Amino acid sequence: MTSANYRDEFKSVIQKLIDSPDNEHVALTNFIGNEFVKSESLMDSVNPATGKPWIKIPNGTATEVDSAVAAAKEVFRSWKNTTVQQRSTLLNKVANLIEEFNDEIAVLESRDQGKPIGLAKVMDIPRCVQNFRDFANAALYTLSTSKILEQPSGKCINYVKHDPVGVAGLISPWNLPLYLLSFKLAPALVAGNTVVCKPSEMTSVTAWVLMHAFKLVGFPAGVVNMVIGEGRSAGQRLVDHPDVHLISFTGSTLIGKKIQEDSAKMNKKVSLEMGGKNPGIVYANYRKSDIAAIARSSFLNQGEICLCTSRLFVQRPILEDFLKSYVAEAEKFTIGNPSTQVQIGAMNSKVHFEKVKKYIEIAKAEGGTILCGGVKTVLHGCEDGYFIAPTVITGLPDTSQVMTDEIFGPVVCITPFDTAEEVIERANSTSYGLSATVWSANTDELLNTANELRAGTVWCNTWLARELSMPFGGCKQSGTGREGLHDSLHFYSDAKTVCVNLAAKY
Ligand code: NAD
């Protein structure tokens, strides 16, 4: 198929979903061996802004996962023996196609996830494109190494070959659906693995669109497969399947730990990117002009980013002034139907919405003060949607559940501190260690604090700025392993050292 033809076909797939009528929902399918295969059973997927179903999705079964794994297994050897240049070319074609329809795919991501459309346009979809492009290109140059071993008997050349691991199970969450799935798919495929994806059952739509891109640009049948469905059935079968050699999981710590245990029984390679309860530390001399960035670090994407700041430690002398400025910033966020130009959209699901509200109630019961937000926001036309305005809480001890559990919503607790030593200990006191932010005009203070924080990423006077090639992941119960250009390519391959005697004569 020429690229002009497949562009039209891709466009019509997206448009059909955008136009999906309210009363007659489009039904998604699994994707197995390059076929869009109906599932045995379907379930509703809800638009979080309206609280109403808008699409039908498969409730994938163990048998469906088995078929997907069989398809991936069958084609593994031939895919692994393609050249990295061939794989890279195909991935670049996927990147180009997604990029061309960036804005249309953003409409779907926003409707399915609840995130503001503006954010999906500038963050989620472009980042997906970048993931495919950067991994496609990096893999051409990064993996090979060789050394000459000199011995009295002659020289040996040692070279390291990076073999793909096999069939990779890719399990992703609902907060950054396409962005995070592509962060797994791109390195897994360019390294020569075949894959079975299991996107979150809460947000499967853009992953389904992506499967069309793989087929249309010419990926061989079976290299990429996807089963949509619940974690406890489809996801669990993928983890338990003996022919799946590697699991890459992004999601909650609870499920990640279960996956680690289950995978250990078969010694599968696992990468776990899990939850966080990220501290932000604001020293008295912080730059006041950073206040908007500090607030953004808590509330972007409704606080539904694993890297959002949820505990803010503010040095005591500036506490009062800081609270005034911070609450003023929090109240500036516009909240509304995510398909319009707003900064805060809807919480992803009713279950999640209820969870966030429950923590706000716990904060009240424990004597916390709600400085702003804290209640359901009712919006005209979206009365049943799951909206909560940015919520700022003070007056809770560090031991409160609200200060130790991951809430994953637009809720931040602010608490004072006195010394660097004290705040470092308190910031490190939860079971998580994903990321942290430090705000100060003093470089020594910044770097000394960054040095002592137990987190996979520490941002100093900034947030969310990370170059793709840097290692990404969590400490403690926030994760196992690292992702990023080099780390991911290593994870999705097994290094094999080959030693060849150059002096041997036959
Ligand atoms: P979740 O753990 O509930 O689900 C994640 C994925 O795992 C989903 O696809 C789900 O269907 C699947 N799953 C559930 N049970 C399973 C099982 N028994 N076996 C196999 N798969 C199973 O997480 P979520 O609610 O979708 O996402 C929110 C969480 O993700 C938060 O904790 C957040 O911090 C975390 N997260 C972490 C990162 C990171 O990079 N560290 C990034 C984004 C989100």
Automatic annotation (TrEMBL):
<dbReference type="InterPro" id="IPR016162">
    <property type="entry name" value="Ald_DH_N"/>
</dbReference>
<dbReference type="GO" id="GO:0016620">
    <property type="term" value="F:oxidoreductase activity, acting on the aldehyde or oxo group of donors, NAD or NADP as acceptor"/>
</dbReference>
<dbReference type="InterPro" id="IPR016161">
    <property type="entry name" value="Ald_DH/histidinol_DH"/>
</dbReference>
<keyword id="KW-0520">NAD</keyword>
<dbReference type="InterPro" id="IPR029510">
    <property type="entry name" value="Ald_DH_CS_GLU"/>
</dbReference>
<feature type="active site">
    <location>
        <position position="273"/>
    </location>
</feature>
<dbReference type="InterPro" id="IPR015590">
    <property type="entry name" value="Aldehyde_DH_dom"/>
</dbReference>
<dbReference type="Pfam" id="PF00171">
    <property type="entry name" value="Aldedh"/>
</dbReference>
<protein>
    <recommendedName>
        <fullName>Aldehyde dehydrogenase domain-containing protein</fullName>
    </recommendedName>
</protein>
<dbReference type="InterPro" id="IPR016163">
    <property type="entry name" value="Ald_DH_C"/>
</dbReference>
<comment type="similarity">
    <text>Belongs to the aldehyde dehydrogenase family.</text>
</comment>
<dbReference type="InterPro" id="IPR016160">
    <property type="entry name" value="Ald_DH_CS_CYS"/>
</dbReference>
<feature type="domain" description="Aldehyde dehydrogenase">
    <location>
        <begin position="38"/>
        <end position="498"/>
    </location>
</feature>
<keyword id="KW-0560">Oxidoreductase</keyword>
